[in-house]
Specification:
The complex is a heterodimer of chains A (176) and B (308).
Chain A (H helix, E strand, L loop, with lengths): L14 H23 L8 H12 L6 H15 L5 H20 L4 H25 L12 H7 L1 H9 L15
Chain B lengths: L19 H20 L5 H31 L3 H38 L10 E9 L7 E4 L12 E3 L4 E8 L4 E5 L6 E6 L5 E7 L6 E8 L9 E4 L11 E9 L6 E8 L8 E5 L28
């Protein structure tokens, strides 16, 4: 694989960690909904961030099918239209697959700027679908969500790559 | 270099599966199918129940820290706040006790009068207590989730009330939880009766002005509605028992260019902050079935005994 000069050679990703992080993102967004924010339009979709991250970094493991299934779960949890998030995440994941070879050549802040249109498109798809299905407009604050999501991209890049940045030869002085 | 440092699986050159574009097409079509089946034909409830059951352990687990934080907050609340709440409760109880004592007598009187006039007795509905566990995250609707479901025999369409008035209606039932659509949801309609004039109407949720508001639609521009009128359930719908407070009229806008007045309502129930609610059984089960229509015979041949 051709890589950006100076980029660290990473360990292979652990599939358990990938699926675990997706499940953790789903339950974290549930926790924030149930305990902290309740029903708010501007809340960032953490699951979408993690999905895009893994689609870009591990496109062979996490792809459009996984995005669709997680979208369905999100729909059932939210109690909205069944298929709304599934559609949004499918579109999101498709665009992530399209840009995944180009995106990793950039530094993390420019990556965050480049994934913003993806998140914006996913939210727009969901908004249009719901308005077509007869939902009430939730307020302009819904357009804040893609900004927060792309601001979370660097955080996700640090946190989700931590296990792969471990040294290949741990010893007694360097257990991790 | 130790084993497992590098990904040693060769990338699949030939077995790549569908292309991304065809996957997008397939899954989008599937999503559109699901949405149409969900909104137009309402056949997706089994799928929802299956996925919801799959998701429930996760939700249950996630609820633990939330409940712990709430319980901790209550536990650490100051003694003064508890005293104030207790004093308020005692005051409201003494205010209500006077009316409650009169109610016994009024009920008896009402029953006798109804017997005298040979009217059907007032319908009673069974109720069960429930707790609101969280607001549904969907920002396009107004829904909450309560902790009673099919296992507690919650019926679809059951009215949900809190201590001061109607809160909403059960619109989806899962095995262990149910979704309640609040009366402030835009698509929720409730038949009401103006207690001052006795006029019936239909109140809808309204999110256009402010968060928890309702609107009394289809009132003529010269209709007798005044600010402060109390609207209660009218009982003509076969769902809500009559006489439950729903909303108060907050503002009436009469314009020359429209036939209808815009009537803004303020819900009586604590719609956005209710925690303990009652789920009532819908009245439809107690209402006798509609008599069969005389289909074939011309009007003269129908005997009076046929229509029960």
């Amino acid at each position: 694989m051709i890589m950006r000069p100076g980029q660290q050679l990473l360990l292979p990703a652990n599939p358990l960690f990938i699926w675990g992080s997706l499940a953790a993102a789903l339950s974290l967004s549930m926790l924030l909904n149930m305990g902290v924010w309740g029903r708010a339009a501007w809340t960032p979709d953490l699951l979408a961030v993690v999905l895009v991250f893994w689609t870009v970094h591990q496109p062979l493991r996490v792809s459009i099918g996984a995005a669709f299934v997680f979208g369905l779960l999100m729909d059932v949890h939210q109690g909205g239209l069944l298929g709304q998030h599934a559609m949004g995440y499918t579109v999101l994941s498709f665009f992530a697959i399209t840009v995944h070879r180009r995106l990793l050549w950039f530094k993390v802040p420019s990556q965050a700027a480049q994934v913003f249109p993806l998140f914006f498109a996913a939210h727009l798809v969901e908004l249009v679908l719901r308005l077509l299905a007869g939902g009430a407009f939730p307020g302009w604050s819904i357009f804040l969500a893609p900004f927060i999501e792309s601001a979370l991209w660097p955080v996700a890049s640090v946190l989700l790559l931590l296990p792969q940045r471990r040294p290949p030869d741990p010893d007694a002085n360097r257990p991790l | 270099m130790p084993l497992g440092t590098l990904d040693r699986d060769p990338p699949p050159f030939f077995r790549q599966g569908l292309s991304a574009l065809s996957k997008l097409a397939v899954f989008s079509a599937l999503a559109v199918f699901l949405m149409v089946a969900d909104t137009r034909f309402q056949v997706m409830q089994p799928v929802r129940v299956a996925l919801g059951t799959l998701l429930y352990p996760m939700q249950w687990l996630v609820m633990r820290p939330v409940l712990l934080a709430e319980f901790g907050g209550e536990y650490l609340a100051s003694l003064r706040a508890v005293h104030t709440a207790q004093a308020d409760a005692a005051k409201s109880r003494s205010l209500q006790s006077q009316r409650a004592n009169q109610v016994e007598q009024l009920l008896l009187e009402n029953e006798r009068l109804r017997m005298l006039l040979a009217l059907r007795p007032r319908l009673q509905s069974d109720s069960a207590a429930a707790q609101v566990i969280y607001d549904a995250a969907d920002p396009y609707t107004r829904k909450v989730v309560i902790d009673k479901g099919l296992a507690d025999k919650v019926a679809l369409g059951s009215p949900v009330v809190d201590e001061s008035g109607v809160l909403g209606q059960v619109t989806r039932v899962y095995p262990l939880v149910s979704e309640v659509t609040l009366i402030t949801d835009r698509d929720h309609a409730i038949p009401v009766l103006n207690t001052r004039t006795g006029a019936r109407g239909v109140a809808f949720g309204d999110t256009s002005t402010h968060a928890d508001a309702m609107e009394l639609r289809y009132m003529a521009a010269n209709a007798d509605v005044a600010v402060g009128d109390l609207l209660t359930t009218s009982g003509v719908d076969g769902v809500y028992p009559p006489g439950l407070p729903v909303a108060k009229i907050e503002n009436v806008e009469r314009r020359v260019d429209t036939v209808f007045a815009r009537v803004y309502l303020q819900p009586v129930a604590l719609v956005s902050g209710a925690t303990h609610v009652m789920v009532l059984q819908p009245l439809a089960a107690q209402i006798p079935a509609r008599p069969p229509l005389p289909t074939t015979a011309p009007a003269g041949k129908v005997r009076k005994g046929d229509a029960k």
